[in-house]
Amino acid sequence: MRWENLTADPAGDPARDAALFGADAVITRTFDTPEFRGITFHEIRARSIVNRVPGASRMPFEWTVNPYRGCSHACVYCFARKTHSYLDLDTGLDFDSQIVVKVNAPELLRRRLGSQRWLGEHIAMGTNVDCYQRAEGRYRLMPGIIAALRDHANPFSILTKGTLILRDLDLLKQASEVTDVGISVSVGFTDTELWRTVEPGTPAPERRLDAVRTLSDHGIDCGVLMAPVIPFLGDHPAQLRATVRAVAASGATSVTPLVLHLRPGAREWFMAWLEHHHPYLVRRYERLYAEGAYAPKWYQRRITRQVHELAQEYGIGPARAGMPRRITAPEPVPPAAEPTQLTLL
Q: Which pLDDT score is estimated for 138?
C-alpha cells in the first residue's frame, strides 16, 4: 500500500508534494464484531485535515474535511472510489472494506481554525466519503470536529446517508446557535429492492428520512439531496413521486435532485454491478454515458423539472444557496455611572 503517495494533491508529483502522513504512523486493526466483520481499519495520524477543493471542481464550496477514506456504505456508484487507487488499493471491494481513519482529525481541525491565517470560511463534510459511516460509531471523530467548529463559530455543512448523525444532535444544536449549519441527508429513492443492491451498507431510505424528521423536530433545518437518481432503475415517474412524497412527509426543508454520474473508478465498478444485476441495461447505459461521466443535459433537465414540479405539489422546494451567518459579539452593557466610550474588546 503506497501511503507515501497520499498527498494533499493526489494528482500532484509524489516526489515533490509532502505526504499527508508517513508509513511509520499507520496502525492496522480488525474487529471481530458483526458490524465490522471483513473490514480492515488503517489508523493514521494525518498531517493535514482541511483540504481545498480543486478549482475545476463543480462543488459549490472551497474547503472540505474528510476524517475517513474509503466507505463501508459500499454504494456501487460512489464517485470517491478512484481515490483508493492512489494507495494501490482497488476501487471495488478494497474501497468498501479497507478504511483509512484519520484519528487526529479533531485536533488538527481545532489547530487550523485557531490559526491567524484561517478566515472562517465554510467547511463541507461528507462530500467525498460519508463521515457518519459505520466506523464513526467506534472512532467518534465527528463530536470533536463539530465541537471545534462550534467553538470557533465556523460555518459548516454535513451531507450523510448515516443515521448516526442523531448521536450528535446536541452538538449540532449548539453549533447552530452561533454559526450557519447546513445539514443534508442523501436519499435518491425509496425503492427497497434497489436500495438493498446498490447501497448495501447504508441505513434504509425510510430510516434516513426518520433522521430528517428528528432533526427538523429539534429545530435543525435539514434538506434532502435526492441523489443519485439512477437512470432506468429509479427514474420512473411513479418512483420519483413516491420519493418526493416521502421527503415532504419527513419535514425536509428542500429536495434537490442529482442524476447519477460515473467517474473513472466508480464507472467500472458500477458497470460490473449492472452486468450482474441488470444486464439488459448495459447497452442503454453505454449510450447514455457515451460522452463521459455525466448523463446528457437533456436528461438531467428532465429529471430536475419533474422533481421540482413534484416538490411544488407537495409543498417543498429546491435547495437555495445561503450565505454563512456572520457572528457578532454581544454589545457590552454600559456602566450605570458616567457614560464611557464602548470598545469591541
A: 95
211: closest CA among 237, 202, 273?
A: 202
Q: Dihedral of CA 210/211/212/214: which sign?
A: positive
Type of residue numbered 138:
R
Q: Which three cell numbers stand for residue 317?
A: 422546494
What is the per-residue pLDDT across 118-175, written as a single tens digit (0 to 9) for each?
Answer: 999 999 999 899 999 999 999 999 999 999 999 999 999 999 999 999 999 999 999 9
Return the residue matching grid coordinates 478512484. Answer: 82
Report residue 292 as a C-alpha cell.
Answer: 463521459
Q: Residue 85 burial by CB count (10 A; 0-12/13-18/19+): exposed, middle or buried?
A: middle
What is the grid cell recorded at 117?
491565517
For residue 113, give the nearest of 57, 156, 165, 164 by alpha carbon: 156
pLDDT tens-digit map of 6-15: 443 444 333 3
Sequence-distant (≥ 6) Cβ neighbours of residue 196 within 8 angstroms: none
Q: How far apart are the first and last CA of the chain?
A: 52
**Phi and psi angles of residue 157, each rounded to the nearest 5 degrees, phi first:** -140, 155
